Amino acid sequence: MSSSGFPNSPHGDTSHTAVALPSGDALFDRVPPHDDEAEMAVLGGMLMSKDAIGEVSQLIDVSDFYQPKHQTIYEAIIALFSTSQPVDAVLVANQLLKDGNLDKVGGTDYLHSLVASVPTAANATYYAEIVHQRAILRNVITAGTKIAQLGYSAEGSQAEDIVNLAQSEVYEMSVGKVRQDYSAIGPVVHDALDQLDKLQNGDLQRGVPTGFRDMDDVTQGLQPGQMVVVAGRPAMGKSTLGVDFARSAALHHHMATVIFSLEMSKTELAQRIISAETNIPLVALRRADDITPERWNTLNRFWSTLDESPLFIDDSPNMSLMEIRAKCRRLKQTNDLKLVVIDYLQLMSSGKRVESRQQEVSEFSRALKLLAKELNLPVVALSQLNRGPEMRNDRKPMLADLRESGSIEQDADVVLLVHRPDFYDKEDRPGEADIIMAKHRNGPTDTFHLAFLGATSKFKDMPQDYQQDGV
Q: What enzyme class is recorded for this protein (predicted)?
């Protein structure tokens, strides 16, 4: 039997055959749209992953479930989650037992079967969307049936009243689902002028400082809601620049920052940060004999300043987009998160089957832009470039060189391309780097000339009086 109650019918199919209806479905002359398997998969994902609970609870409400036992299980999961308790099949069973509902939902065996029904929690949001869509269809049918009943039962003189009631019924169906995000132009313009006034008076706080003089002048810092893409060929220094942004924000301006490192381990990342902050060469941190008593003193002083620094590092393997979003939301609530750095885009996984890798990366790109807007902070996404620069004589990267580029290029507010001429020719401007701002949605593009200090894993401003050859 399929979830709709008819053999071999697709999920959520509504047959045209009238059937005996469960209580509460008197308005329907057939089985209402629903998908039992999707409901089970949502609950199974929630029992497997706390991150899935955070994601799903933003997409659906308890009333979106068709089966009463699924509503009861959902409420028990949310009750545990909202009090920051761990959630799994055993703990939810205890909660249901305490509420006197365990036998009503099929006992502990049914809860374990929910977990067994899904191979991974990564698809929980996909199934939640199916559940939500079926709930919308049920609401449409309910409203339509009520309106039809009003029309049949009314007298001719009541026609206008019935139209009003019908409009009210449709409005009630949608009112809880639509947020009033629109604003009249007057207050919006007033806010924009007020912001300009504060900017002139020096009262307006800049965005997240990058730590680089010229870059901060052009961008006014990394702005909330922006997706900033830092791209480069392998070993060009894009990870170093991303860490430089994080160091500037968290260690020098005390702004909560998280680095999701899908390439380097926490230890490797920590060594780079230590080297950049203390000027002790990276190679020395990997050889005990090179750490002199003087360097130990430097390291101890650095450690004491780090104690309160709000920098978080996550190197979880095979990190999915759902996990990243859930962790960012949690850090926003608990630590007022100001900056997210993801290293790097092409290493993220969705856990879903997709038609192409390009489509999957495009989904990541769009989702990260939406995350930046939702949490009102800049998201710095590092990205690979294809081999395009190596095919050109000057080896300079271009916007079109972004790997799986279409959506990344479109979604990004700022694109920074890392180019080091001495990577290809040791005699060509050794120790210098060009950070090419190939896209800047809210301002001019520019090229920033920085020093690259590979030994201590960081970029640095050139002296004020620096002039590039030929300039």
A: isomerase
